[in-house]
Design brief:
By secondary structure, the chain is an all-alpha fold. Helices cover about 75% and strands about 0% of the residues. The longest helix has about 40 residues, at about 10-50.
């Protein structure tokens, strides 16, 4: 016969909720950072695509606007993937340790949507759309 685990007291419940929300805020900070990197990279690409025209087609710099844009978008996507993996690991550990289920992570969902945005942006740069 198994003994039932008593529910945590109010202070412990609130501490668990604060910790869960801290993980969500951290993920959202990473989402904001990734969004900034992705949008900055794509904006640089489009700006230089529209403003700079090199008539003879020879490169003027070591890395051009397209390369810089792909680098920035790539950094944003990698940061988002690493943050998502860490976020999922942290929430899984909380579920196992405290037996709480905070439901679906809204920050994780937003991170997934931003990663789709980043993939679309990098594909647009790759295919020069």
């Amino acid at each position: 016969m198994t003994s039932a685990v008593p529910p945590p007291d109010t202070g412990t419940s609130l501490a668990i909720e604060r910790t869960w929300l801290a993980h969500e805020r951290t993920m959202m900070a990473w989402v904001r950072t990734a969004t900034s990197l992705i949008s900055f990279g794509f904006t640089i690409y489009k700006f230089f695509q529209l403003e700079l025209h090199n008539p003879d087609g020879t490169p003027e710099h070591v890395i051009g606007a397209r390369g810089f844009a792909m680098f920035m978008i790539g950094i944003g996507l990698v940061a988002l993937v690493l943050a998502s993996v860490d976020h999922r690991r942290s929430l899984k550990k909380m579920r196992q340790t405290f037996g709480v289920d905070g439901g679906r992570s809204t920050a994780g969902l937003v991170g997934g949507l931003v990663s789709v945005l980043g993939l679309i942006a990098i594909l647009a740069v790759i295919f020069r759309q």
